[in-house]
Amino acid sequence: MNAKRPLIAVLTGAGISTDSGIPDYRGPNGLWQRDPKAQELVTIGPYLADPDVRRRSWQLRKEVGAVGAEPNAGHLALVELERSGLPMRVLTQNVDGLHRRSGLPERKVLELHGTADRVQCVRCRLRTPMAEALARVDAGEPDPACLACGGVLKPCTVMFGEVLDERVLADAAAIAKACDLFLAVGTLLQVHPAAGLARVAVEHGARLIVVNADPTPYDDEAAEVIREPISQALPALVARITAGEFSAPA
């Protein structure tokens, strides 16, 4: 009798994208550790109230370079997992869009914190490509306003001080409850409510595997903790999964 195929949920954080040239934020060498004041650049109150914060925020977006980043071996490993035919969904805390650009079908990716590849006017809600806004910054506009109504532009991300979309969070919780195998990849599991999805999965009987360079609050509950670099560890883990090492409960 064939083993039952596991339903797989993969929660990804900033660590999966560092090999694509996008720095993490909360790790020991992350942006918030190097410059604690940088957090206000992605906090909704100061961002809306202070033009100088917005100008510095636009410069940060240019420097981070997420728009031009390319998927790495970690992202591509998840594409291979999806193409294996195993039922899987990616729940990502990242806003860089690299899971979609790697070739994963959009329906398989739930972007918990939104996406940085588009901007939205806070007044008229018009959405336009981030690349167009950054081109205006390059051309000399330090704080580009909405071309339709003159309102403030912000990335289509959930900033500090904003709440996650309730429908997105409900979908993520349903996936965590239903999965047999929950991979936490490149995340310190400290940003809630996304981090709490690991708890939901474990409480509903899923096997938890943590792939992260630094300790997380969930390591003691994990069936396995992998400290190797993600671009090496995730392809190897996916190979084990597709080989049938992790079957679902009968």
UniProtKB/TrEMBL annotation:
SUPFAM superfamilies cross-referenced by the UniProt entry: DHS-like NAD/FAD-binding domain
The enzyme's E.C. designation: 2.3.1.286
Pfam family, one: SIR2
InterPro entries: DHS-like_NAD/FAD-binding_dom (IPR029035), NAD-dep_sirtuin_deacylases (IPR050134), Sirtuin (IPR003000), Sirtuin_cat_small_dom_sf (IPR026591), Ssirtuin_cat_dom (IPR026590)
Entry annotation: catalytic residues: H113 (proton acceptor)
Gene3D superfamilies: SIR2/SIRT2 'Small Domain, TPP-binding domain
Provenance organism: Kitasatospora arboriphila
Name under which the protein is recorded: protein acetyllysine N-acetyltransferase
Deacetylase sirtuin-type domain mapped to chain residues: 1-244
Keywords of the record: Metal-binding, NAD, Transferase, Zinc
Major enzyme class: transferase
Record flagged with keyword Cell division: no
Chain positions recorded as Zn(2+) binding sites: C121, C124, C146, C149
